[in-house]
Amino acid sequence: MINWGVIGAGGIAYRRTIPEGILSAGNSNLTAIQDANTDLARKIGKEFNVKVYDKIKDLLSDKTIDAVYIATPVFLHYKHCMLAAEYKKHILCEKNLALNKNQCLEIIKKCKDNKVKLGVGYMMRFNPLNLAIKEAVMEKMLGKIILGRAQLSCWYPPIKDAWRQQKKLGGGGSLSDMGSHCIDLLEFIFGSKVVEVNCIVGNIIHDYEVEDTAIVTCKFENGSIGIVDNCFNIPDNSSKNFLEIYGDKGSILCKGTIGQDSKGDAEIIIEPVKKNYEADQKRSDITSGKKFKLKQSNIYKSEIEYFADCIKKDIEPEISGELGLHHVRVVEACYESARKAKSIRIN
To answer: What's the pTM value of the predicted model, to 2 decimals?
Structure first.
């Protein structure tokens, strides 16, 4: 069993990763937690019957802990990852890995120097539907992939001292916070990395310093195109978080496979190849869509079990620090594109 410590036990850790992930995983134990809000930490510690540390160094000094899950705000990831690596704890860090690519490079080097595993929290890869969609794409059921669209939006009004609404603390707004997940998911499904981006950001509803609206078009190594749209200004129930994959033989249309839930709905439509152009573009003869029918499994449980298994087997996680670095570079390129109003290649 892998014994876990949690740094930043509120927020996503308390809502999802601790109860659905660490406590449910068959190869993991929750050993201790820490949070800057000591009252909250004690409440959570009592609820889950685990040790509570006021200071991060005290948690990291606990020799019974094998790995740490870091779910603090993004601006603290660099400091906490570097410290955890120094104490030789394996690290699963929430995205984004850090505020900029230089911080990411230092984290990766520190982990390698101290021989600890480093993973990044792109949990949507573990949704069974997203895994099935990737398999369908890899098997070329849709033919040549032409276009993918990933949408993740929510209602996030101005909140006093919210770190996600301050550029120096979160790195950006809706794009940095949610777009990174969408870009990662398209890369995962396509089996191809983004090499060029074109981005527009703005503040249409909210007046905080980071964007509340972002649209990105991506070009992938395999020639496919991606569209990613992320908004902090659309009511939660009005944004269905669509995932759409289109090829020259059909499409896969999904709702709810992007987000924190472990559910969703996906339909695959395969059409017979047509040799001739049909000017009337009739839709009535299209092959009926077929729903994916899969056993549901929790994405946080799968994420924790996967990373713990990498530790036990001494293998590098696929969702690695290098992948986290790549996505920080992509997001940085998106913001550069928005500033310069032109396409930017990924360095």
So the answer is: 0.95
